[in-house]
Design a protein that fits this description.
Length: 492
Amino acid sequence: MARLLPLLVCLVFLTPQSLQAEEAPRAWMVVLGTEQFLLGAAAYPAFCKQHAGKDRREVRKATLTELKRRAEAGRSKLLAALGNPTDAKPLWLLNAVVVQLTAAEATAARAHKDILWTYPAGLVPQKLNTEKLAEVLKKRKKRRKFNPKGKTVPWHIGLLKADQVWKELGITGEGVVVASFDHGIHYRHQDIRGNVWRNPDEKPNNGKDDDKNGYVDDLYGFNFARMSPEVLDRSARKHGALTSSCTVGDGTGGTVTGVAPRAKVMALMAMGGPYNAARALQYALDEGADVLNMSFSIPNLGNTRGLWRMFAEHASAAGLAMVSGAGNFQRQAKIPVQIRIPEGIPCVICIGGLNRQLQVPGFVSLGPVEWASVKFFEDHPMPAGLLKPDVCAFPGPGIQMIDPNGKSGYLGEKNGRRGNSLSAPQGAGVIALMLSANPCLNPWEVKRLLEESATDLETKGKDARTGAGLIDALAAVKRAQGAPKGGAVTTR
């Protein structure tokens, strides 16, 4: 009985309200500190203006240093404000931590002087997966120079004029890393295996974090949702395998499916919400990715759209050019919610879609996009909104891609696959060509060059159906070549 007495005393003082609080469900939340690198609608444009003409690589270095410094400096304040939880997980892309809170605790946290806001974090994996890579590709001492002679070049690559960039300018994406935020890649296919990014400091399948970056055996990228190094696309529709082939498929088997056949592809699997997305962006930045393709679209995020925009603006400031398809929701959603996240974020390059006759198909999402209702931004009110898409490529059907199930072969023009998930990686490939021509260009300069060089369609000037028009890879790369080494770009 003596042992039970302390417990009984505690129960006497527990009120019904406190019992309810103890039993309330807890969810993982992203908690932001008040000191952020960029905050509000005016901050990112001001950053771009301040850094106009500077070398992207130098801007990246300085920005990453400052992002990490701010996050480390602000972490102790955040943790103290939250009662020093033992399960907190840090982020540095923002000054933020991820913790478990009840709804009442999240509301209370927002009133604290050291906390800016809280957002749902989504899936937060707890354990490291012991999966191993299905295959470790042999290191190649030197890749053969890409030669399109004798290879089939699909119609969409010809209409984008990417093949003219290869032939006339000799630029094929060499030296550029494109991160694929998707369901993985098909690194076993002969047209992809030579273009897979490889972590130079990681020894595969030894169960160790050789480079001390926090991830074990991350040779080709990482699956942040499963905490696994395996990034082979095993999804039912092989979405990532197909999208990545639109960027880097080099035609080893006879058909060039990729716009940038000598760029490298880094695989990032990070579905599940903002926490995994933030870690994927951090990884891409730390490991040197230049371009990020995001062939997905998230609806109904409400104010959490603002969190994604903060992620994107910080990543863009750090030199990562981000691309996403406009979506396939013209028949399913009213404007202004057809174009969602991440493609609706101002700094993300939104790729719309055209058919072979250069007309907008009935499934392709249209703009404009509204941001006036989103906390901390409150810009781009309707009806004018934010004009999206930014430029257009080809969503199919009729796009030739690799066979996602075999080690060779292709899906022909009659494969029936369609969607702006295919348009986006074409745009990412063109950006890879531009950065191969001029690695100094910052993401906002790349975006402007793409729009200025596009072939205008429909309404004169940028519009909410076709953006600035069809991507012209040849014109875009020539403009990139002509830009000063510091990255300055002359507007119209």
